[in-house]
């Protein structure tokens, strides 16, 4: 059942729409005299009474509503009448009146209808009348997926929404992209929780507190102006229900996580043989002379990966009296990492309280408070030097207990024993956050109300890191030989959103349905950070890792701080007008002023217009049995993106200016220019066009939503734009300016399809399918041809580019053409010397793209891009008797991934495909020879690019609902136990750990530095209501 | 109708808030609009310009690798690939290390220009000295850029601004020389003869640099004049020739900012550093990079084993030349003597292990902060008196000015090294100076540029092609940024 914060007051509006709908269903008027009947309307799923349900005699305008206990009484019921019972969120049911005078009518929840009223920002709109591309994720889906981070529930369940995790480390955040990557900057959508801007990560929210998530994908989001261009996610949290006894819900699950994949690496014997071969090929002595008895050696992946538990408890109580509803909940989540167990864990505690009450007949108060507390321990989990990177590159000939690699084979300065690294990692990050909103609604005149809302977030993050004295071996970059170090940080972030807005609603002459909203929003965010670092922690132990006992002094004791203050002032207006129930029009205008923009461009106007036409409502439209509803809609609007660093228009003197006194070697500090400024900096502007159809057919069993969109983002704020070195941005503490300098177009096609039916007496099925295509193209970059980003190997040219006519962040490098088989082939080919070495037989042959007879940087070309051609999701639910089964699948096709977790160093371990190396003419045309002499085989080429397409069975769960009569004896209303597997299986050709993980960086995404794989989880859970 | 008025009234009342709300200045931050308003501001900004001297480690190490003195070394034949390619003289415009050098030195130019362009904002006692030091620093960075890249964009009036790369051309070498010389002449006029603070530039550092610039330009009389001023100032002497100084300590901590130091880049290990910002390190990154790989033993600390002196340069010293063992560490002999252990990285015959290390600039045991490889506190003797003497001798000899004086300068340097006086003159003396410069200055980054200006690099450096390799390529990226304004150096 869909119940939002203002449900009590909005219900009448909603019922009115429903009434229209029903009236439309009933074209004939039948009047007759009859008898009195009565009955009760119950929720078919749990037999709860449904209060205020509509009961109507079919063909008449005679209707009534159920009372608090779901009871109704009808006078003058004609013989052979049919009663039509409807209730928002349930399938409307018709009951033939028989001789009985009393009827018990069960209504089944309608999963499609759940979103019948959607929040659209500063108000609500009936699903039917929505003119934009708006998708909704219900609390049921969230509950059925029940991920630790609610962002994962959006993965594959909503068209046009692409979610990638930043790795499987506990507590890691997810990147959400709505309709593609529209900027090279921050692509994160705006998140609004119960009306206020939510500035924490989604992983601090308890998923079980969420009633629904609404995603504004098109110009409908223009009501949020300068913050809306990445799309908007509106989260509505659960509240109590009027006139309902306290209902307790307890949910828990326990799971075991394991890695979903281990990479095939060489074992000790294979490693030694291949290594010796690579030295011999370079004319050098074999580094490993004793080959017998090496065996398989240490399997570092087996050593690092463990099985780890995850556990969640959630208890809530909800209910309400005639004028008041309440909801109180608390939850605990405990998750350990599949690498490093307790060194990598996430713990979240949440508590929330919601209270809503009619203070006066025309005055409603609604308050919500959320408290979140998270504790996170983390390992260096991705990139050069991460635990997994070390596990992949560490020699299998080294024993797992060797902490100090002195005397072992030289693996370079970065590769160390990953187990030692885990042991020496000490950190803790805790965040305590209080968020909430106070909302007052005053109906000060007929059809008019004013709402004032004050939402806020205040959070304190504390980090504690300890680096013990430790020697990993000679020259290792992780070594701390002299002194240990503790570093502490305290970061305080505060913001508030204050809204005040007026709404006028009226239906004039039964044909003009008008909602006009006008108001303003004030948003301010301010905060500060304080940092301290000291050496000399007693006993070299985390137990004493505090500045109070550390003995560092002078330059070994450092402190620092920062502060910020960001503000936005907005005015907005929106007119929603419906004529004759079929012609829909919405107009939006928002004006934003933001501190993030220079005085020259401080104010922006963001208009949007959307139109809808319910064609199936037209009199000329054929009354087709199978077609229930057909709506055409289109929208166009302008939105902004202001997610850029503050004060880019000011030249701040934040550069590092330090020199050394010749007298005593002490540091002397001065002042220098920080990042270069840009006085003209302004918001990015998205122009979004959307054309769509909403279709329901076969008695609403099938529901189809189709959208086509074009989003043009202009004035892209290009931060850190690479600029000429003469501007001095290489100076310490300086960086390139942020310039409005690009345009990107995203276009695509989206489809959402659902089907639900009762197949048999006790067999329900629901199916969902969504499909999205995306075509991304950079349409302009002012003043330059390309922007580069990303990282591959060490000291190589940037592998990713943004270039006009290409998708953003595409991969740019050398195209391979097999392996040189013999010297004749080498001589016949263009010289590869400019890449760093002369080619030899067994080396990769690169294509001379420009045909100038040499292979150099001008021969680089498009090699692929990380943007999928299309993504899709599929879900299936089956209920039979007391059993329920559900499955979620999603996939992505056409995205490429760069394999960048193989360290380019002679002695590190290799992936086992290297066994298929070239060893002589005709032996391999794919894998180059093994050698430690300099080659060009490691330059960025398509040798390192793989197809990242995948299909993942994300969740399969099987639940059992106990019979009411069984559990009522122990005081329960409902009891469901379930078994569930997450991340069941992934079909992919990709050779790395996980094709779904990504940093999400617009230019430089899709490069796999050895991602922490997202774990597979086996879970048992229980939901109880009492 | 009444409702409409009420509505409008409420709207007006509820939404009256001014845009002043978003007119804020960043909390606790200073910005450039309100800077240079007190004498202290000029001092503080000058420190910012000195800061970039720390980043010139790359000029020294890479310059040495480019010469015939050393192998690139490192962990493997591909470790710091940009350096490996330079060692083999196969470097191309795509070279992140050459680009670093461009970026770091221009950052220094830009910071000095920031002060110079605000020269007229206020007046105070001592301003001339500060501006003069800024001009010295700008000339220092620009001369480095000139040595590496030849024609470079210049902007005497102040900082480069965005868009200048599209319109300001690379000035021809002669113009850049004129510009550097004029800057140094103004600096000399306004600078005190001695440093205001140890380590800062003074009139003599500026004269020595100007003498060097003239020498590179083969304006021998002017060069000799400036260098003689330095020599005759009496402020300098060769270390080890006075009091209880020992020549062997010349490159030890004890001899930092000694009487031999005409201009010295100051380093410290008191601030930590990381690989993500090597130019931010206040330590001498070259030193850690030059250290013995996996070294465990007395006196020294370990490092990354780059810039390995070749046997040929070791053998170029005569047995009785004291400079050999001060300049070059024979690691096997040292290990045998002290029981120290070490590991070998790159074994490539062209760029790899030689058994020798640059003893002048390898890490000594000290308590620098992590990453210890990046924060070695060894000062770089950028212009030392021995160099001044040899440059003066060269100017006097090649300018046909005074061979006797030239010989006396050379002999001063030779005598300190335990060698006899030379009697050479004319061309013979020049040939001797060529050799003395190599032996005296090995490991200090000068050799490559000496060979190039003498026009004999092709004879000594394998793979060197004149005129192509006289200059390094403009960074590939910079050619792109200039959108056709700047052309690539010939041959690249």
Tally of strands of chain A: 52
Structural class of chain B: mainly alpha
Q: Class of the domain at 113-245 in chain A, according to the CATH hierarchy?
A: Mainly Beta
Number of helices of chain B: 20
Gap between N and C termini of chain B:
80 Å
| Strand order in space, largest sheet of chain B | 1-5
The chain-level structural class of chain A is mainly beta
Distance between the termini of chain A: 18 Å
Helix content of chain A: under 10%
Order of helices and strands of chain B: HHHEHHHHHHHEHEEEHHEHEEHHHHHH
How much helix is in the residues of chain B? 40-55%
Low-confidence stretches of chain B: none
**How many extended strands of chain B?**
8
Provide the fold topology.
The complex is a heterodimer of chains A (1026) and B (492).
Chain A: H1 7-25, E1 35-43, E2 54-57, E3 63-65, E4 71-77, E5 82-86, E6 93-96, E7 102-107, E8 117-119, E9 124-126, E10 134-138, H2 139-145, E11 161-165, E12 174-178, E13 190-193, E14 196-197, E15 210-216, E16 232-237, E17 244-258, H3 268-280, H4 300-304, E18 308-320, E19 324-337, E20 341-360, E21 363-377, H5 387-393, H6 418-423, E22 426-445, E23 448-467, E24 485-508, E25 512-535, E26 557-579, E27 583-594, E28 603-614, E29 627-641, E30 658-660, E31 667-669, E32 684-697, E33 702-714, E34 717-718, E35 739-740, E36 742-760, E37 763-773, E38 775-781, E39 786-789, E40 800-803, E41 810-813, E42 816-819, H7 823-828, E43 844-846, E44 861-864, E45 870-880, E46 883-893, E47 896-899, E48 945-947, E49 950-961, H8 964-968, E50 974-988, E51 1007-1008, E52 1016-1025
Chain B: H1 2-14, H2 39-51, H3 57-66, E1 70-73, H4 81-87, H5 96-117, H6 127-149, H7 164-167, H8 173-190, H9 203-216, H10 220-232, E2 261-265, H11 285-290, E3 292-293, E4 302-303, E5 306-309, H12 311-316, H13 323-327, E6 328-330, H14 331-338, E7 356-358, E8 380-384, H15 385-398, H16 403-416, H17 426-441, H18 447-454, H19 457-460, H20 476-481
Parallel strand pairs in B: 3-4
Antiparallel strand pairs in B: 1-5, 2-8, 6-7
